[in-house]
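User: Let's play a game. I give you a shape written as tokens, and you guess the letters that built it. Ready? Here's round one.
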């Protein structure tokens, strides 16, 4: 009886071993395409900066604020940024379009500034990227200060 149990156990273990081994290697690369998790519509929710103690402090962006903006990152690696600038105390809407690429934890956005003919690029370091939050940091070209931006993914409304 013990020999039958041992034989049955050995056969069962051999069967399980063979069934768990794949004939193809999953490490061959194949046609896997990394998903672009940045592609979405993002609404700015907070702007952050480091204080004198190097503590990151965020200020929320309110609905009527001139700081509000929307970033639309498309699957084809183009983007549209809708934002506001203050001119003579009045918030005026602006739009910038361009391209972006994802490069080792960074978003590199390239666009042609208004009134210019040559493109410029800004590198945003990705701090957090989830299915609902995008948090990035970049160095402001004018003030040379580190700026932090928090975005929330815009969820389409269901009618």
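Assistant: Ready! My guess for every position:
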């Amino acid at each position: 009886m013990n020999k039958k149990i041992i034989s049955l156990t050995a056969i069962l273990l051999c069967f399980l071993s063979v069934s768990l081994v794949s004939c193809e290697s999953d490490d061959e690369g194949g046609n896997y395409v990394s998903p672009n998790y940045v592609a979405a519509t993002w609404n700015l929710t907070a702007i952050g900066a480091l204080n004198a103690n190097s503590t990151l402090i965020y200020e929320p962006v309110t609905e009527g604020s001139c700081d509000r903006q929307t970033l639309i990152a498309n699957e084809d690696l183009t983007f549209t940024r809708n934002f506001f600038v203050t001119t003579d105390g009045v918030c005026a809407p602006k739009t910038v379009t361009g391209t972006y690429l994802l490069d080792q934890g960074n978003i590199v956005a390239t666009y042609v500034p208004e009134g210019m003919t040559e493109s410029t690029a800004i590198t945003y370091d990705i701090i957090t990227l989830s299915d609902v939050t995008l948090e990035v940091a970049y160095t402001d070209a004018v003030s040379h200060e580190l700026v932090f931006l928090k975005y929330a993914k815009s969820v389409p409304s269901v009618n």
